[in-house]
């Protein structure tokens, strides 16, 4: 093995594109325009074109994107928002910070995304929104989710923080719900070199609301029509993202290739590989498997310099910060709880070699055989 194995290899990726990145940054420094301006406008245009969406609006992070999307939709105190308990905390955090209530529906045991069959029983007269998360880069079952939204007059916010470039039945995610949110946190599939986010919509009025909210609620300078925040994409990050967007499909394909190699090793083993629904393009933000006694497996791998991560060890309904009115007791969402106990994410990034991927897979199987029966 020539290179060490990284969970995410940002340095290896940077080495291949550093000249373009350094030129792009230098151009911004020379322009003297650091907030807004040409780079941001061009990135927004290119991101919208890439997605096949009408509007893409940069903001400061994926977390802000979620918060601003809900503000633009007119969320009010005590509104209920249905989402998955098995996601990164920001999904529920932003609901709670707006004084609304996250209400959970358990996940599908195979996809780890929200189980659409469990959504309708969570709907009450207070329900206004749903936030499906395209977890680990796999689109949620959007046809069924949109049908439920239509039946109950709910609006849908796609949390595509982990899925920029993923496709559902021939459409890019971010173009199916009413509004969508992306994170460019450095380790995401399209990562900035700092915090950055994006809000996507085909609705002109919503887009205008979002633009205003991102910039202190102004429609024109110093006239504040509504409550807003300071959440803007800065020009250096936009310039970096413009360079990286050109490589994204290639990088996502490299992840898909690595996932295929992992899959091929795990089919005849006791390791449960990710399950992919039909008709989608999964972009493997994470490659997560289930294995009995995963903590022992993680320790065994660590001793052999193979990093792993647990996404996520505690479902949100069991987190004190986000369990208001949500049936926050153990056993409430058994599938999420079981998966949180057994899941482990393996190294996954655009720079993995086939040799590294095969080696990691074989070591996981060896770890399972060594540790699997111990508790
Ligand atoms: C990363 C992430 C976010 C938040 O994005 P930031 O850019 O880190 O604020 C939100 N939702 C999900 C599912 C994420 O993975």
Explain this structure to me?
The protein contains 11 helices and 14 strands. By secondary structure, it is of the alpha/beta class. It has 2 domains: 229 residues, Aspartate Aminotransferase, domain 2; 125 residues, Aspartate Aminotransferase, domain 1, CATH 3.90.1150. The strands form 4 sheets. Strands 1-9-8-5-4-2-3 form a 7-stranded mixed sheet, with helices on both faces. A 3-stranded antiparallel sheet has the order 7-6-12, with no helix packed on it. The protein starts with 9 loop residues before the first helix and ends with a helix. Bound molecules: pyridoxal-5'-phosphate (PLP). Pyridoxal-5'-phosphate binds next to helix 3 and helix 4.
Major β-sheet, in short?
A: 7 strands, mixed
Given the C-alpha coordinates, what overall shape results? globular
Low-confidence stretches: none
Number of DSSP helical runs: 11
CATH topology of the largest domain: Aspartate Aminotransferase, domain 2
Q: At CATH's second level, what is the architecture of the largest domain? A: 3-Layer(aba) Sandwich
Fraction of residues in H or I helices: 25-40%
DSSP E strands, number: 14
Written as H for each helix and E for each strand, in order along the chain, the element string is HHEHEHEEHEEEEEHEEHHEEHHEH
Order of strands across the widest beta sheet? 1-9-8-5-4-2-3
Please identify the structural class as seen in this structure.
alpha/beta
Rg over CA atoms: 21 Å
- Could you tell me the mean pLDDT? 95
Bound molecules: pyridoxal-5'-phosphate
Q: Which CATH class of the largest domain is shown?
A: Alpha Beta
Strand percentage lies at 5-15%
Q: Which superfamily, in CATH terms, is the homologous superfamily of the largest domain?
A: Type I PLP-dependent aspartate aminotransferase-like (Major domain)
What is the domain total for the residues?
Answer: 2
State the end-to-end distance. Answer: 31 Å
